[in-house]
Amino acid sequence: MGPLDLCKMTILCVENNRLIAEDLYKTLSNKYPQHSILMAEDCLTAINCIKYCSPDIYIISLDISNEDSLFILSVICELRLAKQCIATSSCIETETLAKYAETGIRCFITKPIVPEKLFQKIDDLMQFRFLCKFNTVKTVNSAMRTRVLRAL
After folding, report:
1. What pLDDT does 83 receive?
2. Where are the beta strands (DSSP E) in the chain?
3. Where would I find the beta strands (DSSP E) of 3-149?
4. Using CB atoms within 10 A of its CB, is residue 96 exposed (0-12), middle (13-18) or buried (19+)?
5. Residue 21 burial (C-beta neighbours within 10 Å; 0-12, 13-18, 19+)
6. Domain holding 119: CATH number?
7. Residue 128 has what pLDDT?
8. For the segment 120-140, what is each residue's pLDDT rounded down to a tens digit?
């Protein structure tokens, strides 16, 4: 059991193709059984998951309607979560890629998704999230320690 196993993560996948969504859910659940996998088929469900579940990692299909995917990505960017996002698409054209890159998303995977590539990206993001959480706890503990020492 590694350090990443100690920090339970929530992964939100936004995919409107039911077959791909089911396969993705099964693949992620098997690979990451200790983590929560949330699935959303549309923009409204995705926004509600973002709002109420605070996912650690986002896997967003750009193949959902252009307006919906841009809206979801704009919400993610507004919340400063772009570094935690993996975008997937079956068709990546240079113009489209540039448009999505403007949102701050830097991680793109083409469909059909190769599980090993996706797992590597997710593992990298999990490590990033773990370190962010660890540093936040360390900073809070350090600030509390400073206050206690000053009170003495």
Report:
1. 77
2. 10-14, 36-40, 57-61, 85-89, 107-110
3. 10-14, 36-40, 57-61, 85-89, 107-110
4. middle
5. middle
6. 3.40.50.2300
7. 82
8. 999 988 888 887 776 654 554
pTM of the predicted structure, to 2 decimals = 0.79
How big is the chain, counted in residues?
152
Q: Which are the contacts of 87, defined by CB distance < 8 A and separation ≥ 6?
A: 60, 61, 62, 73, 100, 105, 107, 108, 109
Number of domains comprising the chain: 1
User: 88-107 pLDDT, tens per residue?
Assistant: 888 767 776 677 677 777 78
Residues pairing with 38 in the sheet: 12
Q: How far is CA 48 from each of CA 40, 61, 111, rounded to the nearest angstrom?
A: 9, 17, 26
Domain that holds residue 99: 3-151
Residue 29 neighbours by CB distance under 10 Å: 13
Residues 43 and 32: their CA atoms lie apart, in Å, by 25
